[in-house]
């Protein structure tokens, strides 16, 4: 691939477009003599004369016209591509990638506070549980559940993953029935989220009842949100993520029958591409999210 020096090539494109050395120099923020030197470098590289110097200004030669016609679309493509990449950092939209449970149960109830603090910034949310890949996804940052390491990305810890059983107040009252509550788990339906199917075994082992899960009656749901709704409706007892159920527990829709929270060792992280142009809107959004996470843990 034979490509001439790019700086002289850019100078040629501007001179060819303006047909004036002075105008080109003003656009490029350089002197007229610097423009002339760059044109001379390009002509020497190509071995052809691109301009005819006239008493007033310059005029493209026949080969210069043909060359300008061929390279101008390339510079327009470069300009459009650069605009596409940089525009997302200069507009008023933050593109956030996260997943449905966190969006519905933790983020959305808090977003009105962000809107009040930053009324000129919009948050566009895309939900996905697929592996994170900034190379294919058009997002500025993501909230991801895991252990804090993702390829070609930088992560900031947001909040810890804490789990424990939850149920409706009516279910708790019926579960007592004269026996100890932990023992009652042997005969109660366990509500299981498909994507968090290991939470019950982990918590039961934590409670010294590792044998219960395999023999218990279970009802499996496609999401944590549906699992918790089933618990609110008295279908059984579910495993809850503490930060996601704060409002439901405070309102009394759900109760924590054992008060034995378990930290799973994982957490939710703010993840950004390793190579990302600084943006004040993204920095402000990250700071706000971190503050909200601190408040929810108090």
Judged by helices, strands and strand pairing, the structural class is alpha/beta
The major β-sheet equals: 8 strands, mixed
Extract low-pLDDT stretches.
none
The neighbouring-strand order within the major sheet is 4-3-5-10-6-9-7-8
CATH class of the largest domain: Alpha Beta
Task: Provide structural commentary.
With 298 residues, the protein is of the alpha/beta class. It folds into 3 domains: 82 residues, Orthogonal Bundle (Arc Repressor Mutant, subunit A), CATH 1.10.10; 100 residues, 3-Layer(aba) Sandwich (D-Maltodextrin-Binding Protein, domain 2); 104 residues, 3-Layer(aba) Sandwich (D-Maltodextrin-Binding Protein, domain 2). Helix content is 46%, strand content 21%. The chain is built from 13 helices and 10 strands. Strand 1 and strand 2 form a beta hairpin. It is rod-shaped and about 105 Å long. The protein starts with 5 loop residues before the first helix and ends with a helix. The mean pLDDT is 89.
């Amino acid at each position: 691939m034979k490509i001439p020096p790019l700086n002289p090539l850019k100078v040629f494109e501007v001179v060819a477009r303006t047909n004036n050395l002075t105008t080109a120099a003003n656009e490029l923020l350089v002197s007229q003599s610097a423009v002339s030197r760059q044109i001379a470098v390009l002509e020497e590289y190509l071995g052809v004369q691109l301009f005819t110097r006239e008493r007033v200004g310059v005029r493209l030669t026949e080969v210069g016209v043909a060359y300008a016609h061929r390279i101008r679309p390339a510079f327009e493509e470069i300009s459009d591509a650069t605009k596409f990449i940089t525009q997302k950092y200069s507009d008023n939209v933050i593109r956030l990638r996260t997943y449905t449970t966190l969006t519905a149960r933790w983020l959305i109830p808090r977003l009105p506070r962000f809107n009040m603090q930053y009324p000129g910034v919009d948050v566009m949310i895309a939900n996905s549980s697929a592996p994170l890949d900034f190379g294919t996804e058009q997002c500025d940052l993501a909230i991801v559940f895991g252990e804090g390491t993702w390829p070609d990305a930088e992560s900031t810890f947001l909040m810890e993953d804490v789990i424990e059983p939850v149920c409706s107040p009516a279910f708790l009252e019926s579960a007592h029935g004269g026996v100890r509550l932990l023992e009652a788990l042997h005969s109660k339906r366990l509500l299981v989220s498909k994507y968090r199917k290991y939470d019950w075994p982990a918590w039961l082992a934590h409670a010294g009842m590792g044998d219960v899960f395999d023999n218990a009656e279970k009802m499996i749901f496609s999401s944590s949100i549906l699992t918790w709704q089933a618990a609110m409706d008295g279908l059984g007892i579910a495993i809850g993520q503490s930060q996601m159920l704060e409002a439901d527990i405070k309102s009394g829709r759900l109760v924590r029958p054992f008060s034995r929270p378990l930290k799973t060792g994982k957490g939710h992280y703010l993840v950004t591409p390793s190579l990302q142009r600084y943006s004040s809107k993204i920095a402000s959004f990250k700071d706000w999210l971190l503050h909200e996470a601190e408040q929810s843990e108090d």
